[in-house]
Amino acid sequence: MGVDQQPRLSTDDIQADIVPGFRRGSDVDYAQHFLLLRVADRDRARVALRDLLPSVSGATAAVVTAEEEPPDTSMNLGFTFAGLQALAPDGVGLDGAFADHEAFRLGLAKRSQDKIAVGGAAEEFDLYGDPSRWVVGDDAQQVHVVVNLGAMNARLLEGHVDDVRQRVTAGFDIAHEQPAALRQRTQEEPFGFADGLAQPRIEGFHQPLPPQRGVVAQPLLPPDRFLVDEHHPLTTDGSFMVWVRFRQHPDRFDEHC
Q1: What distance in Å separates the CA atoms of residue 2 and residue 146, rounded to the nearest whole number?
Q2: Distances (CA, A) of 57 to 25, 107, 183, 184, 217
Q3: Region label for 192, one of left (φ > 0), alpha (ψ between -120 and 50) or beta (otherwise)
């Protein structure tokens, strides 16, 4: 995507799944696996996370040219607000760090209890679905940490997942595991539409695209559209991730159309 050879963003402090992302368009065998963890023993969980930190993939390592090979495996960590509370002694500094981020503090399960009406509709409906029907993420299956694991192929990923799984089991319970793989048509989403055409480009990280005939120019967006910059050590150079499972019905969609 035309990455600057000397990005102005603090790439040593930014996780690679925020920018530039792990997978390139040419990585057709790329696979991912998510470990969704719940703290079982706070002290042991903190030790396990400290052990994982050197293996966390930063943006610097993921910035490679077209001629270079990216790292074989990748790992990034995400924390829910409940997870930060479970890991931090007495929740030090948490309310101040996320005072303006109510959605993050409440979590999806809590917000799903609200009904809304859209466009003047007389009947309100569940915007986020019914948590009692979720596989994970409701009150009974609360998630504290999301471990995002990736590899250039399924064989590499299998060993990567086994290694990380063993490293976290002393302090965490595994609430859910979600394997993920590319579709056979990697540029097409399940309903048949073209996918991956509007990847954002970030000022201070990407180079401007040269003009192309018949192609609308992609502007460089300011980093604060993606990165939090509040001068707080818990949020600065981080971002917010939504992890959600959908059941999709392409056949019903086609029939409806």
Answers
A1: 29
A2: 19, 25, 24, 27, 30
A3: left
Report d(CA 129, CA 115) in Å as an integer.
10
Report pTM.
Answer: 0.86
Q: What pLDDT is recorded for position 92?
A: 66
d(CA 256, CA 95): 46
Task: Identify the pLDDT of residue 66.
Answer: 65
- CA dist 116 → 109, 214, 217 (Å): 15, 41, 37
94-136 pLDDT, tens per residue? Answer: 878 888 888 899 888 888 876 665 666 566 655 567 788 888 9
Nearest to 150 by CA among 138, 159, 141, 142: 159
Tell me: the pLDDT tens digits for 192-229? 888 776 677 888 888 877 777 766 667 788 888 888 87
CA dist 206 → 6, 9, 149, 187, 229 (Å): 10, 10, 24, 22, 19
Strands 73-79 and 145-151: antiparallel
* Residue carrying structure tokens 């007389």: 122
Whose tokens are 């029939």? That residue is 255
Token representation of residue 19: 């920018």
For the record, the structure tokens of 87 come out as: 């890991």
Indicate the burial class of 150 (C-beta count within 10 angstroms; 0-12, 13-18, 19 or more): buried
| Of 56, 110, 51, residue with least CA distance to 78 | 56
* Residue 141: closest CA among 76, 50, 75, 80: 80
Give the Cβ contact number of residue 101 at 10 Å. 14
Beta-carbon contacts of residue 13 (< 8 Å; ≥ 6 apart): 58, 236, 237
Residues constituting the chain:
257
